Amino acid sequence: ADVNRLEAFEMWLFRRMLRIPWTARMRNDYILEHNSMSRELLTAIKRRKVGYLGHVMRGTKYGLLHTIMMGKISGKRGVGRRRASWLSNIRNWTGIDRAADLFHLAQDREKFAEVIA
């Protein structure tokens, strides 16, 4: 749902920049290819989120964040559907299933940069 909202927001920005009214009834893919544009907002967000994870995991001053991300905080789970976690999004984007493998990979800056690219 959030991905769809981000893509809709990006298309709204493109339409505003090109001054295309909503009454023009033009398809999004037509606008993109006619003006040789591409959707870049979501890829930029993904790249920055994964980059920030590497920054946090290499830093020694982020001990509390390490504990939280490892899921070692005890307590009761709230009622209702769980929201998609920040870490599960990154695991889906990178293709790494286990969080421990992701954290271990983040310690090596060069290998982690290959995953981001």
TrEMBL record:
Protein name: Uncharacterized transposon-derived protein F52C9.6
Annotated organism of origin: Lygus hesperus
